[in-house]
C-alpha cells in the first residue's frame, strides 16, 4: 500500500462508520477468508461492520470464525438491503468490477458517489467505482493483501487467532496450497507469522480438503471420465452437464479444484472445465494454465471473463456441446503459444 492509500483509509476509519464488506458472487476461500478477516479487524477496533455475500458459499468454508455473522443477500434480502442503505463505507474484496456481485450490483451501484468505497483486490483491469483502491495483480491472494492492509494502517499485533485462521485459509486456497507462481518469499513469511499467531494450519487443510462426500468423489470420477485431451495444443478440458451434476447430488463447491486435474497431465499447460448451469442459463467456465499462456486474456477475448494470467473464469450462453466445440475451434489461433 502506498502512503496516499494508507492515509485515506486511516482518515475514513478515524471516525465511526457503518461498514459493509462485500466479496464476489460464488465466494471462494480467498473471498470469504478476506471478508471475515477484515470483519474481525474492523469490529475489533470498534467499527459497526457487516459482511454481505451475494449468494451461498461452499460447506467446506462454513467452519471459519465469524461465518455465522455473514448475511446472504439472496436469502436475507431485506436485512441485506437495510445494511447497504444505512452504510457509510463499503469495502469490496476479491473483485474489481461491480458486475461480479450478481443481484447486489444494483443496490451497490446506487451507493457509488454517495459514500466512499474501498477496493482490495488482486485481479487485472480494475474499474473505477472505488475512491480508495488497493489493487495489486502480483499478490498471491486478497487475504495476503488484507494482512498487508492491517500491517500498514495499524499493526500486525491486531491479528488475532480468528483473523489468522481466516487469512491462512484464503492464502492456502488461492495459491493452490502454495504452489502457484504468485507464491513468493513474502507469502511464506506471512503464512509463518499467521501460524505463530494462531492459525491452525493442519486443521484448516483437513477442513477444506478432507471433508468430501461420497457424491463429490463420484462426481469427480464422472468429470475425469469426461476428460478430453488435445495433445497438439497441450490442452485438456472437462465437461459436466446439469444432468450429471443432479445425478451426483451436486452441492455448491463440489467442483472446486476439478479444473486443476488437467494440469497434472504430463505436457499439458492449459486446462478448462465447462459446467452447465440450467438455472442461470449459462455454461460456467474455469481456466487454468502453467507458464506464460494467459488464460486471463483468453477468457476476456472469448468468454466474457477474466482473472489472472494463470487462473481465470468465464461464461458461455451456447449449449454445453457447442461451447466445447467453439473452444476447440479457438485453439488453432493460439497454436504458437501453446506448442513447445
Automatic annotation (TrEMBL):
Domain annotation DDH: ranges: 18-171
InterPro entries: DDH_dom, DHH_sf, DHHA1_dom, Oligoribo/pAp-PDE_c-di-AMP_PDE
Positions in coiled-coil regions: none
Gene3D superfamilies registered for this protein in UniProt: 3.10.310.30, inorganic pyrophosphatase (n-terminal core) (3.90.1640.10)
Domain DHHA1: 249-327
GO molecular function, one term: nucleic acid binding
PANTHER family: BIFUNCTIONAL OLIGORIBONUCLEASE AND PAP PHOSPHATASE NRNA (PTHR47618:SF1)
The name this protein goes by in its record: Bifunctional oligoribonuclease/PAP phosphatase NrnA
